[in-house]
Amino acid sequence: xxxxxxxxxxxxxxxxxxxxxxxxxxxxxxxxxxxxxxxxxxxxxxxxxxxxxxxxxxxxxxxxxxxxxxxxxxxxxxxxxxxxxxxxxxxxxxxxxxxxxxxxxxxxxxxxxxxxxxxxxxxxxxxxxxxxxxxxxxxxxxxxxxxxxxxxxxxxxxxxxxxxxxxxxxx
Length: 171
Known about the structure:
The protein has strands at 2-3, 14-15, 19-20, 25-26, 31-32, 36-37, 42-43, 48-49, 54-55, 60-61, 66-67, 71-73, 78-79, 84-85, 106-108, 113-114, 119-120, 124-125, 130-131, 136-137, 145-149, 152-158, 164-166. The protein is globular and about 45 Å long. A hairpin with a 2-residue loop joins β21 and β22 (152-158). The chain contains no helices and 23 strands. It is mostly beta strands. 0% of the residues lie in helices and 33% in strands.
């Protein structure tokens, strides 16, 4: 990992962050053009974070993730490796000219966990929620809910004490 205070153009990373917190680490071969990256955040290798993205403090974004404009990630979040976010549920409605197009927002609240390889469409993920690895999330997620599958659906709940319960659901 590259600590941002030591970033040089020769480190094979492209960084243009408007508000950069302290002790931020960005992995090699990453492009980070975010509006804001909070203190103590770690961004893995080969990650692309586009403009108009906000990442809270103490969050971790795994290697090979793609985060387009319009995504907000809260504090203390974990985004597993190879996660893909999208900012348009119906891209061909605007194609090829994209006149008047604006990105749809994705909002991830504090303490959310997203497993490796998940695909996240424009949704709201509330505080303390868990999204399973490989999930394709197309709907909003309530506080402390556990979602998994393709398409993702609610399979359980995380309780305030950290314990959880799941339904026996065949995915």
